[in-house]
Design brief:
Radius of gyration of chain A: 12 Å
Structural class of chain A: alpha+beta
Radius of gyration of chain B: 17 Å
CATH superfamily of chain A: Beta-grasp domain
Number of strands of chain A: 7
CATH architecture of chain B: Alpha-Beta Complex
Distance between the termini of chain B: 35 Å
Order of helices and strands of chain B: EEHEEEEHEEEHEEEE
Distance between the termini of chain A: 20 Å
Shape of chain A: globular
Structural class of chain B: alpha+beta
Shape of chain B: elongated
Number of domains of chain B: 1
Number of helices of chain B: 3
Number of helices of chain A: 3
Strand content of chain B: 25-35%
CATH topology of chain B: Aldehyde Oxidoreductase, domain 3
Strand order of the largest sheet of chain A: 2-1-7-4-5
Number of strands of chain B: 13
Order of helices and strands of chain A: EHEEHHEEEE
Largest sheet of chain B: 5 strands, mixed
Number of domains of chain A: 1
Oligomer: heterodimer
CATH topology of chain A: Ubiquitin-like (UB roll)
CATH class of chain B: Alpha Beta
Helix content of chain B: 10-25%
Largest sheet of chain A: 5 strands, mixed
CATH class of chain A: Alpha Beta
Largest interface: A-B, 22 and 36 residues
Helix content of chain A: 10-25%
């Protein structure tokens, strides 16, 4: 899988892996930026009904390769996903 | 190896590879006149999930993120156990049954630390590294994404997976038939 399809102006790239990829039938897509991190899951739920309960609630999220707190009360409220960012949905891993 | 993605820092080397893994090459990377022991772990792909035939396994990864996590694990364990050298290589793509999906090699002046470091590196890898395993059952049966955290399937691609509530707890490499140590994941205890 090629990781980054380059987002155009006013957009960011979101990557889906494993169960998130199966649920969306996509490896990645382009969404509108800026987007508050706290609105990410509900934005995805609108596009893929049911994804929050079935997939996202067990997932972590990275922005530009760094893990961010998307569900906690603290950080999620302030962080804004910016144009050109690479966001990834990280399901529970199964390496080894 | 073609198509290989790799990172290294001092005596820590990590890689992802779409080609078959080479255990001897991993050992040779950590070999040193300062080391009195090399411990090599090779994780290989099983042909069944709770008795149900698995045709092949497929691994995907968030490659740049996984390499960073692998390097962080190796650096931490290298320091903690005063290793001479450590290598962690994970295979991606389709892995036929019985082949290596992961190699960890550590070298150390003495074997005790090498055993411990090898085990810890594997457990940390299985807990954190951004690689996902999909078991393909073949034909119309489809496949399922695994999760190391609890052995559960991720998105349900196959309803048969729901029948198994009374079966033994599932570790990443098979049913767990003995109690786990606190904090244990994966391949079971190291016997020393």
């Amino acid at each position: 899988m090629s990781i980054s399809s380059k987002a155009s102006a006013g957009h960011f790239t979101i990557l889906y892996f494993a169960s998130a990829s199966s649920y969306t039938s996509k490896d990645s897509e382009i969404l509108q930026a800026p987007l508050p991190l706290s609105k990410l899951f509900e934005t995805l739920e609108e596009r893929y009904p049911g994804i929050k309960a079935k997939v996202l609630e067990s997932c972590l999220v990275t922005v530009n390769l760094e893990y961010v707190d998307v569900t906690g009360e603290s950080a999620g409220d302030q962080t804004i996903i910016q144009e050109g960012d690479e966001v990834a949905i990280i399901p529970p891993v199964s390496s080894g | 190896m073609a198509n290989e993605l790799e990172m290294h820092e001092e005596e820590c080397y990590v890689a992802l590879s779409y080609e078959p893994l080479d255990a001897k090459a991993a050992m040779d990377r950590v070999r040193s006149p300062k080391a009195g022991a090399i411990v090599l772990f090779a994780g290989t792909t099983r042909d069944n999930f709770r008795g149900r035939p698995v045709k092949e396994l497929q691994y995907t990864s968030y490659e740049p993120r996984a390499l960073q996590t692998m390097l962080a694990i190796c650096k931490s364990i290298h320091k903690k156990h005063s290793l001479t050298s450590i290598v962690m290589i994970h295979r991606l793509g389709i892995v036929p049954i019985g082949e290596e999906s992961i190699l960890i090699a550590v070298s150390c002046p003495h074997r005790e630390a090498a055993w411990r470091a090898g085990e810890e590196a594997l457990e940390e890898c299985k807990r954190k590294v951004e690689v996902w395993k999909r078991e393909e059952f073949g034909g119309a049966a489809g496949g399922v994404w695994r999760a190391n955290r609890d052995g559960a399937a991720g998105v349900e691609i196959d309803p048969v997976e729901n029948e198994k509530e009374n079966a033994p707890a599932q570790g990443p490499h098979g049913p767990i038939l003995r109690p786990a140590r606190p904090g244990e994941h994966g391949h079971g205890p190291v016997v020393m």
